[in-house]
């Protein structure tokens, strides 16, 4: 179960730093939109992106969500990608995120299939 403060930050208009591991073990971090269920943090990406290839090979990730109004208030979730969702559900999720963050439909070109990464926490920290 997600800490309620983690879910609150992930359900708001707050950005997250999403870190995966490259094939040589070096970390790779992207600033991402983020979402949450009661149990998992959700990140939406494309199947041809490096971050997706990284989690297919090694599912260990870290997501740090910063409060947009006070970046000293944040949540860090260390965990694993334990599931993925593709197809219409992933595309609709992207539209929902775009509405939350931009107040408009998603406007960037989509090069490949969208995928939701379902991250189950091993460790949660809120500051």
Question: Brief overview, please?
Answer:
By secondary structure, this protein is an alpha+beta fold.
Helical run tally? 3
How would you characterize the largest beta sheet? 7 strands, antiparallel
Q: Which architecture per CATH?
A: Roll
As laid out across the biggest beta sheet, the strand order is 2-1-5-6-7-4-3
- The SSE order reads HEEEEHEEHE
**Strand runs, count:** 7
Structural class from helices and strands? alpha+beta
**Taking Cα atoms only, what radius of gyration do you get, to the nearest Å?**
14 Å
Look at the structure and give the mean pLDDT.
98
Uncertain segments:
none
Shape: globular
Break the fold down into its secondary structure elements and pairings.
Blueprint: H1 4-11, E1 16-21, E2 27-32, E3 35-36, E4 41-46, H2 50-57, E5 60-67, E6 70-86, H3 88-102, E7 114-126
Please give a structural write-up.
A hairpin with a 2-residue loop joins strand 5 (about 60-65) and strand 6. The longest helix has 15 residues, at about 90-100. The chain has a 7-stranded antiparallel β-sheet with strand order 2-1-5-6-7-4-3. It has one domain: Pnp Oxidase, Chain A (Roll), CATH 2.30.110.10. The protein has helices at about 5-10, 50-55, 90-100, and strands at about 15-20, 25-30, 35, 40-45, 60-65, 70-85, 115-125. It is built from 3 helices and 7 strands.
